[in-house]
Design goal:
Blueprint: E1 3-5, E2 8-16, E3 23-30, E4 48-53, E5 64-66, E6 68-72, E7 76-82, E8 89-96, E9 112-117, E10 128-130, E11 132-136, E12 143-148, E13 154-161, E14 166-172, E15 177-184, H1 185-188, E16 196-200, E17 203-215, E18 218-227, E19 242-246, H2 248-256, E20 262-266, E21 272-276, H3 282-293, E22 296-300, E23 303-307, E24 316-317, E25 325-326, E26 331-333, E27 337-344, E28 355-360, E29 363-374, E30 378-382
Parallel strand pairs: 2-5, 7-10, 20-23, 24-28
Antiparallel strand pairs: 1-2, 2-3, 4-6, 7-8, 9-11, 12-13, 12-16, 14-15, 14-29, 15-18, 16-17, 17-18, 19-21, 22-23, 25-27, 26-27, 27-30, 28-29, 29-30
Helix pairs in contact: 2-3
Protein name: Repeat protein
Organism: Butyribacter intestini
């Protein structure tokens, strides 16, 4: 209660606990005075920090009862991931300060391939809106070269070649993907080396080997390349042990975290446990996850996905397609069924993973494209 002493008015300030059920203390303050230094120590609440009193006590002009206020000990920021068009969100997340956001699977855009996000989504200290980055797939094959960044991504553009002496991409359902090409040394020698990244047909490759040869007095350079995902075999991405239970998408993200890759389309949802008890590469762990869920790996630029079935699910009668040549003699391999080599002039005609049907010598065959190579004509193995 207020009181007057020697002509000076004093007001009483009562300090309650956070719940308002107990009195922490009281003080008498001269009219117009500040009660801050006279306030009792507020209670400690786990996960919360004291944020002042609910009423201003710096200029007390009446008796008052106040309570402490608190705020979350952690600060959260909003991180939005936009779609390609920029008119909708693929994901909106509340991220604790200093932690990482989890990017969504990028959209698949016809004629484009995904090359990453326009800004970092790690160590968040502010609200962010993040956009996906794509690069055009030329209608006619063009071999593009880029300098490699410290993060193992495509950096500064070097140059492109629309004509080379030879080029071949080989891909398999088990995830193997390589490229080799050959061209005149004088056209490439001072521009491209093993520190560069090559892009062709929406696929990204590291140059791993360079060799030169002379034929008929002309010097040629041949380069061998591995898909960019092979960097997951590097020592910097090794894991000493891994044990996680979750959906394939959750586990794949845990394996790809800290790498240049995002999680692509994952259409298998059943929870599994991936357990690796010895030191292993990230790529080996990804392949073990594929085997565990009986899935197939899918590359989309810098996105890695896991699919139940790559390629079309409906069987295609390839005899009705415009093939330039079809092998007519099936090759028999013990314990592996019938293997039929096929070729066509347009790479879209025979895609990896597609279900195929054809009739050879009056016998019907149904199978899948399990191996594919592209070097001007599409070659595939149907099994």
């Amino acid at each position: 209660m207020s009181k007057t002493v020697d002509g000076v008015v004093y007001y009483t300030v009562r300090f309650l606990n956070y719940a308002g059920t107990d009195l922490l203390g009281t003080c008498d303050v001269e009219a117009g005075g500040d009660a801050t230094d006279l306030a009792p120590q507020p209670e400690v609440i786990e996960g919360m920090v004291f944020n002042g009193w609910n009423v201003d006590i710096t200029k007390v002009m009446e008796d008052m009862t106040v309570r402490p206020t608190y705020k979350s000990e952690s600060i959260y920021y909003t991180v939005n991931f936009l779609n390609y068009a920029g008119d909708d969100y693929l994901s909106t997340q509340k991220v604790k300060e200093g932690e990482n956001a989890v990017p969504p699977s990028p959209e698949k855009i016809r004629g484009l391939f995904f090359i990453g996000w326009n800004t970092s989504f790690t160590d968040i200290h502010e609200d962010k809106t993040i956009r996906p980055r794509y690069r055009e797939i030329p209608p006619h094959p063009v071999l593009n070269f880029y300098k490699k960044t410290k993060g193992n991504t495509s950096g500064e553009f070097i140059r492109s070649y629309s004509a080379v002496n030879a080029c071949s991409i080989t891909a398999k359902l088990d995830g193997e993907c390589t490229m080799s090409f050959k061209m005149l040394t004088r056209k490439i020698d001072s521009f491209v080396d093993v520190k560069c990244i090559a892009e062709l047909d929406g696929l990204v490759f590291n140059i791993t080997n360079v060799k030169k040869s002379i034929s008929s007095g002309v010097c040629y350079t041949e380069m061998e390349c591995e898909h960019i995902s092979y960097i997951l075999n590097d020592d910097e991405y090794k894991v000493t042990a891994f044990d996680m239970t979750g959906t394939p998408r959750q586990i794949l993200w845990a394996l790809l975290e800290g790498t240049p890759f995002s999680v692509g389309t994952v259409d298998i949802e059943k929870k599994v446990t991936l357990r690796v008890n010895t030191e292993a590469t990230r790529r080996a762990c990804v392949m073990q996850l594929l085997a565990l869920v009986k899935g197939e790996i899918e590359y989309y630029g810098y996105a890695i996905g896991i699919r139940k079935h790559r390629g079309n699910s409906q069987t295609v009668d390839i005899m009705k397609r415009k093939m330039s040549r079809i092998s007519v003699i099936p090759i028999m391999q013990r314990n592996r069924g019938t293997v039929i080599p096929l070729t066509c002039t347009e790479k879209e005609m025979l895609t990896l993973g597609m279900n195929c049907f054809l009739i050879l010598s009056h016998y019907p065959y149904t199978g899948r494209s399990v191996w594919s190579a592209w070097s001007g004509i599409r070659s595939t193995i149907m099994r």
